[in-house]
Design goal:
mainly alpha, Cytochrome Bc1 Complex, Chain D, domain 2, 5 helices, binds heme C
Length: 98
């Protein structure tokens, strides 16, 4: 099954469905251009691997609300649905920290 099919199936699933790491992995392709997967990247962009899911979610909300002001992350945070955030949180929490 392709990732697109998995994502489409999840989109049709009820909102209370458990966060799905496969969806998170699929969505993380967009993040990987800036955030390295498990390796710390040179420069100021933090690594997300191993971050606790509640911390991850709280950080996304700070960009969405403008508490943290970063143009790239604000746009990204606003495009993600609640389900997307939960899936990404579960995915990154499950990655080994560098
Ligand atoms: C265009 C580059 C870029 C892309 C793409 C990007 N980010 Fe970021 N992200 C950044 C930068 C730069 C920061 C640090 C901003 C700051 O100083 O607040 C950041 C910070 C974060 C933080 C806070 C980390 C911390 O420890 O403070 C989270 C969480 C995050 N990004 C998640 C994501 C997710 C999830 C995606 C994909 C859906 C994504 N980012 C895509 C550039 C990017």
């Amino acid at each position: 099954m392709s990732f697109a099919a998995v994502a489409a199936g999840l989109a049709a699933a009820p909102a209370h469905a458990a966060a799905d790491r496969a969806l998170g992995e699929y969505l993380s392709a967009e993040c990987a251009t800036c955030h390295a997967g498990t390796a710390p990247k040179a420069g100021a962009i933090p690594t997300l691997a191993g971050m606790p899911a509640d911390q991850f979610t709280a950080l996304i909300m700070t960009y969405r609300s403008g508490i943290r002001d970063n143009a790239a992350m604000r746009n990204i945070a606003k495009q993600l649905s609640e389900e997307d955030v939960a899936a990404l949180a579960a995915y990154y929490e499950g990655l080994k920290a560098p």
